[in-house]
């Protein structure tokens, strides 16, 4: 590891880059075993009706308990996608979410990677995971950019899922500059207004963009969930614009299934099931 230049004298070895690559390789190795070691946990964040704060659904959010830290998905979902582990992770999160759904007492939404959605086994896997649970209790969230990247294929899969009674949410709505002409025909049930819009609502120029995006969503005739609502001021503005549902730290942080209903943690019935 002393090589500093190739035969042409061009530097090909960079210590810092090498360190980063080693760190990523180590992380990838650990991630390969994360599911089997039961390190992937699921938190639930509620979505509420703004005026009444009635809970309408729960979004499942994956966490990786890795060497005494809890890693947010932004740090490892991309690695899971590159290495193909995302299929195992996705199946695991879906299974946990569907198992937890009855005690959450509201429908559960699960995020789906574009790689999973376009996998031929995805639909049968989801149906198998549902088992006897009514399909209406499940929403699958797929990002707007993913749908636009492979429109025809995604539309076909989304239509199949909807025909089975599973709801579809368009995540990060507004972040992809998709045209109204394309959006209007998308087989989705709910639009999730991206957090970046909500955070801009406090500024005059930002507010106009949020207004236009919410108006676009309303023109499509779909319920809109605003993500990442952190302040009462943001909530009030969103309600005034006609947003139907809100999600964010103001109304509830991601939490464990046990805490979701305000229960005290207690021995889980599933401990006996799984042996
Ligand atoms: P997302 O689906 O848009 O999920 C919402 C994210 O916003 C979550 O981040 C949530 O914790 C965060 N959030 C909610 N309310 C607030 C708020 O008021 N303020 C701020 N600053 N943040 C808020 P999280 O859990 O870190 O997840 C990030 C992204 O990772 C998700 O974005 C989703 O795209 C992806 N993700 C999470 N779990 C999974 C999974 O099981 N599978 C896949 N494929 N992706 C996942
Ligand atoms: Mg989501
Ligand atoms: Mg989202
Ligand atoms: Mg988002």
From TrEMBL:
Boundaries of every EAL domain copy: 24-268
Domain of life according to the entry: Bacteria
Protein's UniProt name: EAL domain, c-di-GMP-specific phosphodiesterase class I (Or its enzymatically inactive variant)
Organism name: Jatrophihabitans endophyticus
From-to range in the entire protein, with total length: 475 to 749 of 749
């Amino acid at each position: 590891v002393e090589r500093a230049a190739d035969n042409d004298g061009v530097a090909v070895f960079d210590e810092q880059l090498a360190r980063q690559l080693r760190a990523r390789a180590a992380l990838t190795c650990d991630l390969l075993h994360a599911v089997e070691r039961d390190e992937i946990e699921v938190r639930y964040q509620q979505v509420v009706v703004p005026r009444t704060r009635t809970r309408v659904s729960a979004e499942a959010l994956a966490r990786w308990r890795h060497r005494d830290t809890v890693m947010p998905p932004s740090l490892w979902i991309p690695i899971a996608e590159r290495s193909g582990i995302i299929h195992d992770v996705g199946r695991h999160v879906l299974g946990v979410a569907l198992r937890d759904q009855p005690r959450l007492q509201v429908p559960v939404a699960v995020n789906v990677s574009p790689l999973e959605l376009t996998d031929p086994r995805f639909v049968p896997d989801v149906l198998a995971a549902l088992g006897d649970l009514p399909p209406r209790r499940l929403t699958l969230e797929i990002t707007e950019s993913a749908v636009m990247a492979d429109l025809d294929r995604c539309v076909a899969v989304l239509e199949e899922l909807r025909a089975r009674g599973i709801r579809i949410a368009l995540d990060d709505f507004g972040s992809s500059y998709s045209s109204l002409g394309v959006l209007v025909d998308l087989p989705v049930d709910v639009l999730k207004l991206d957090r970046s819009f909500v955070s801009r609502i406090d500024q005059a120029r930002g507010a106009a963009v949020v207004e236009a995006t919410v108006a676009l969503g309303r023109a499509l005739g779909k319920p809109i969930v605003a993500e990442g609502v952190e302040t009462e001021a943001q909530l009030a503005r969103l309600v005034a614009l006609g947003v139907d549902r809100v999600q964010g730290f103001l109304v509830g942080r991601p939490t464990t299934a046990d805490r979701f209903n305000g229960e005290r943690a207690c021995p889980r019935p599933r401990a006996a099931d799984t042996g």
